[in-house]
Design goal:
about 500 residues; alpha+beta; FAD/NAD(P)-binding domain; 9-stranded mixed beta sheet; 25 strands; about 30% helix; globular; binds FE2/S2 (inorganic) cluster
Length: about 500
């Protein structure tokens, strides 16, 4: 694209600007009060709070800490979770919709308080949050959402303009929200927790749970962590426990680009109401004023060419902002539950020791923080006003069941379509750094040719429940459209629910 060079490698802006500690893999069986699986905002917030209660806590991550969804966020700390409050009012009523807002507000206050108390240098800054639209039909939706704000006593205002100079028909502001550098903040929480005896293990895969007299996590290397409570904070719960989480959530992929700004930013954080999504915020990275542009959401594995999503964001940045070169590009994956409210609490009805937090629907900074607090309160026997709202065992027949059926019909379609598609692409004609599907000895094979022309082949059957994975050209991964598992081009699991790698096919097979 004229005027812009796309960064070769997807790399989020946050990880480049902070040096994170590394930790060893677990090499023996151990005991703890609480074992947390997943080193993102939920896991680290819970570790920070639980270790203050003198509990023995261990934190495991299948890869490196802060390298999952938390490391790939826009890091807006806001209760303005898109157009949600009118919908919550009609599905849940005033009391629960109000609790949802209060939970997000409390998360923001917790972060603000923690930053002050620990003098954390993480660029925390109060900013107003805006939803804007350039479509007449969405203008009506903004109006309805403002009425919901009024019912819930949320401070906001409808306007036909906003500080940012974009073509709009209207905007709805929620005052006094915030933004920060998520990894600087979480690194500080992690260090505090370590001072309070938290133990961290990286490259340690929680493969299974044994519910005998005592509860144990079994790692893929066969070591056990015997504990009183397990928190699955691994984005998708690493153990399903016949709770069918894979059928109760759907994954969406979204994209971000960032570049240095050449003009003074008007302040505020922005997201539009319509599709394609455009999310905008500023950040200061190593003294440089940057702008972040996010959006282009689609169901995982069902988008167009993934590079085209980055290009669309670049085009938007160039059209409306004085942005120099795009220096970063990365993508994120988020899970949405049937009723759009996260699942936080005991993962199953009949076992109180296995807890989870998932389905944050792109609003992980507030949802992950409140999840850490709710799960800590659950473990320490402290009352928490949000238990019932977020409990994973809730059941709301309408519209959840209809959505459940639609999601499963979609999964079935992908499973069957993927198996029947016949591909005749010729591997010889494959360009460098590109992938295709081929049939080799009757098997459907995903073939990637790297920059040095080495060929990497994998069986494209997802090891979770057997859907066919699709090539993601932007990130060079094989993504599953059914429940969002992602695999590297050599087949390793990058994101679950799959636990096993794709089968590698040798070139001479
Ligand atoms: Fe469930 Fe692939 S993630 S089948």
């Amino acid at each position: 694209m004229a005027g812009f060079n796309m960064p070769q490698k997807p790399e989020p802006i946050w990880r480049e600007s902070v040096s994170l500690p590394s930790f060893p893999a677990l090499k023996e069986s151990i005991k703890a009060d609480v074992a947390i699986v997943g080193g993102g905002i939920t896991g680290i917030t819970a570790a920070y709070l639980l270790t203050q209660q003198n509990l023995k806590v261990v934190l495991l991550d299948a890869n490196q800490i802060l390298n999952g969804t938390t490391g790939h966020t826009t890091a807006k700390i806001t209760a303005q979770h898109g157009l949600i409050y009118d919908e919550l009012l009609s599905h849940f009523g005033l009391e629960k919709a109000s609790l949802y807002y209060k939970a997000a507000e409390e998360a923001k206050q917790f972060i603000e308080h923690t930053v002050k108390e620990n003098s954390i240098k993480c660029d925390f800054r109060n900013e107003d949050a805006y939803i804007y639209t350039n479509s007449s039909s969405y203008l009506k939706k903004l109006d309805t959402e403002k009425k919901a704000y009024d019912k819930l006593k949320i401070k906001g205002k409808l306007s036909d303009n906003m500080p940012l100079d974009l073509p709009i028909k209207g905007s709805l502001v929620m005052y006094n929200q915030a933004q920060f550098h998520p990894l600087k903040y979480l690194k500080a929480l992690l260090e505090e927790a370590i001072k309070n005896q938290l133990t961290v293990y990286e490259n340690t895969i929680a493969a299974d749970i044994e519910f005998n007299k005592k509860t144990s996590i079994v790692t893929s290397d066969g070591h056990r962590i015997t504990c009183k409570y397990i928190i699955a904070a691994s984005h998708f719960p690493f153990h399903d426990s016949r709770s069918f989480y894979f059928a109760r959530m759907y994954p969406e992929r979204s994209y971000l680009v960032a570049g240095k700004q050449n003009e003074k930013f008007a302040g505020g954080m922005y997201i539009n109401a319509e599709s394609p999504t455009r999310s905008i915020r500023s950040a200061n990275i190593d003294g440089k004023d940057m702008l972040l542009f996010g959006g282009e959401n689609h169901k995982t594995g069902q988008g167009k060419s993934t590079m085209s999503h980055y290009e669309a964001l670049q085009k938007f940045a160039k059209e409306f902002f004085e942005v120099e070169e795009i220096e970063y590009r990365w993508s994120a994956q988020d899970l949405t539950t049937l009723d759009k409210v996260p699942y936080i609490g005991p993962a199953t009805k009949d076992n109180r020791t296995y807890l989870t937090a998932t389905g944050f629907r792109k609003w992980g900074m507030t949802n992950g923080t409140i999840a850490g607090k709710i799960l800590t309160d659950y473990i320490t026997g402290t009352e928490n006003p949000y238990f019932d709202l977020f409990t994973p065992s809730r059941f709301h027949a309408d519209p959840a069941v209809k959505k459940f059926m639609e999601i499963n019909a979609d999964v079935a379609k992908h499973m069957i379509k993927g198996k029947l598609e016949f591909t005749q692409n010729n591997i010889d004609k494959l360009e460098r750094d590109d992938a295709t599907l081929a049939r080799i000895d009757g098997k459907r094979v995903g073939v990637y040719k790297d920059k040095d022309e080495a060929i990497h082949m994998v069986d494209t059957t997802c090891t979770h429940l057997g859907c066919e994975v699709k090539w993601n050209s932007g990130d060079r991964t094989w993504d599953c459209p059914c429940h969002g598992s992602r695999f590297s081009y050599t087949g390793e699991v990058m994101e679950g629910p799959a636990k096993k790698p794709l089968t590698r096919i040798k070139a001479n097979n």
